[in-house]
Amino acid sequence: MLEQSVIHIFVPPVIAFLLVVLLIMPLRKAARISGMVDKPGGRKKHDKEIPPVGGLIIFSIFMILGVVFDNVNLNKYWALYVGLIILLASGALDDKFNIDAKIKMGFQVIAATVIAFGGNVQAAYLGDLFGFGVVWTGFMSYPFTIIAIVLLINAMNLMDGMDGLVGGVSAVIFTWFMVAAISMGWFDYAQVLALLIACICGFLVFNMRNPWRRKASLFLGDAGSMSIGLTISWFAVLLARGPHAPIEPIAVAWIIGFPIFDTCAQFYRRIREGKHPFSPDRGHFHHHFIDAGIPVRYASILIIAIVAVMGGIGVGGIALGVPAYILTLGWIGLLFTHIIISCNPERYVRIIRKIFSRFIVSDKNSSPLQGKPVGVCVDKG
């Protein structure tokens, strides 16, 4: 019995990881042959045609193996599967043909609506956020959930501008969710999360920079980044849905806080400057690291580490008995601090240089990135 449990827990993720790694190579070639590539030019500074099919591979394998290994109960997960299919299809069309932003937003709303209504996944319980009693969203739970899901989908999509960033950040977020599920004995959810994490890690072999890989050879694509945002939303609500759930809503807010902070800050700064909130520029958090002289391979790891620490504050704070309202005030304070500093990107660059000075590459010959801050990442918005 114990051997069967161990096999059921560990074998599917291992197989998922290996399948992603093995299938990426032929599918990457097929994508190039079919013209499904992200071409250099404009704000896209990579010097080769890169297939943006990472998300299609990750979620196809995740969804298929979830059913094959009986990790995923389709009676519970059908709405997530439908939502993923909608975003994978619309994202692939966008990666190939650059569809209108309003049409893409429409697909996001449809996917979020399927999750909220079809999957019966609503953020109705928010916990004791301010110390005056539990907050319930009541009849506003459906619109609140749909808006929150669309926001997170776009947050992950807009953050996808650096090799390894969205994949690494999402892997950390899902890992914190898995830890919370295991701590409360919700092993069914933990097994699904382990399967997804393994698929993402297989993708990161080709997407994250390291001493053996100078640049990514595969991108997530809009299909991948949007699907990651939807899946984060799904588990964020499910694992915090009620006082007896594995994790408090404010802890979830800390776990997923980074992409929300960055998106809110960029929207506020752009509107303040008279721009459209989705207009592309170089004001995102990851851009500040590059402009500070930190190479992409270090910048992505540092940002992923920040996300991991934020998750630790949320989960660890609740575990140590820190009142939820203290965590709420800290979260709000950090959000507004980030927004204020983001209004002056040069100030943020100076702060990053002081804090992470040991990671700055000053010798132009020591890194192909130094002296080319615009050419190391792509801003989607």
Walkthrough of the structure:
The chain has helices at residues 2-34, 54-68, 74-97, 101-118, 141-159, 165-183, 187-207, 221-238, 249-255, 257-272, 285-291, 296-319, 324-342, 345-355; strands spanning 125-127, 135-136. 66% of the residues lie in helices and 1% in strands. The protein is mainly α and 381 residues long. It has one domain. It has a two-stranded antiparallel sheet with strand order 1-2. The N and C termini lie far apart (51 Å). The longest helix has 33 residues, at 2-34.
Count of helix runs: 14
Query: Which runs of at least 5 residues are low in confidence (pLDDT < 50)?
Result: 363-379
Classify the helix fraction into a percent range.
55-70%
Q: What's the β-strand tally?
A: 2
What oligomeric state is this? single chain
- The termini sit apart by 51 Å
Major sheet size, sense and barrel closure: 2 strands, antiparallel
**Structural domain count:** 1
pLDDT averaged residue by residue: 90
As a whole number of angstroms, the C-alpha radius of gyration is: 20 Å
The portion of residues forming beta strands comes to under 5%
The secondary-structure class comes to mainly alpha
Brief account:
The chain is mostly helical. It has helices at 2-34, 54-68, 74-97, 101-118, 141-159, 165-183, 187-207, 221-238, 249-255, 257-272, 285-291, 296-319, 324-342, 345-355, and strands at 125-127, 135-136. Helix 2 runs antiparallel to helix 3 and helix 3 (74-97) runs antiparallel to helix 4.
